[in-house]
Amino acid sequence: MRARVDRIYCNMTDLTNKRILLGISGGIAAYKSPDIVRRLRERGFEVRVAMTRAACEFVTPLTFQAVSGKSVHTHLLDASAEAAMGHIELARWADTVLIAPATADYLAKLAHGIADDLLSTLCLATTSPIVVAPAMNRQMWDAEATRENVAVLKARGVTFLGPGDGSQACGEVGPGRMLEPADISALIAARYNCDKLRGLKVMVTAGATREALDPVRFISNQSSGKMGYAVANAAAEAGARVILVSGPTSLEAPLGVDRVCVNSAQEMFAAVMQRVGESQIFIGAAAVSDYAPKEYAEQKLKKSKDRMTIELVKTRDILAEVAAMDHAPFTVGFAAETDDVETYARDKLRKKSLDMIAANLVGVPGSGFGSDENALSVYWSGGAEELELAPKLHLARRLIGIVADRYREKHSAQNS
Ligand code: C5P
Question: How many whole angstroms from its chain centre is CA 192?
Answer without folding.
Answer: 9
